[in-house]
């Protein structure tokens, strides 16, 4: 899948004290761009240092229009998690579920590419690369 990066940041869920502001900051920057209205947006997690406890890059991207920064997301196998949009923290709760499945040995992650897909309909799905 060919995507075009709008914004990126590198962070860590557990050791970066600025993680929340970095992530919300790039999302706010992208949401303010009129060209992304009515288009599918992706939050792509890549360049993993190790596992979910290590550093990673988060790139906000789209396939609808081109920028100079292209990202090719591999067509590997993915396990798809649907986010409950009725919950205020549905995305975060889904990530907690993913981490718990990994910790229990029920999910064998590839740590190549994972992504959140924000559809125009409002549906949110998280695609986790699996081995």
From TrEMBL:
> At the top level of its lineage, which domain of life is listed?
Bacteria
Q: What is this protein called?
A: AraC family transcriptional regulator
């Amino acid at each position: 899948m060919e995507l075009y990066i709008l914004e990126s940041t590198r962070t860590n869920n557990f050791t970066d004290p600025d993680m929340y502001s970095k992530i919300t900051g790039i999302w706010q920057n992208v949401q303010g761009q009129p060209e992304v209205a009515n288009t599918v947006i992706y939050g792509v997690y890549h360049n993993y240092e190790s596992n979910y406890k290590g550093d990673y890059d988060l790139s906000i991207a789209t396939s609808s229009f081109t920028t100079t920064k292209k990202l090719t997301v591999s067509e590997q196998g993915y396990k798809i998690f649907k986010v409950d949009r009725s919950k205020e923290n549905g995305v975060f709760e889904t990530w907690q579920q993913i981490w718990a499945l990994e910790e229990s040995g029920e999910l064998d992650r590839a740590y190549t590419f994972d992504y959140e897909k924000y559809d125009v309909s409002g549906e949110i799905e998280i695609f986790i690369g699996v081995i």
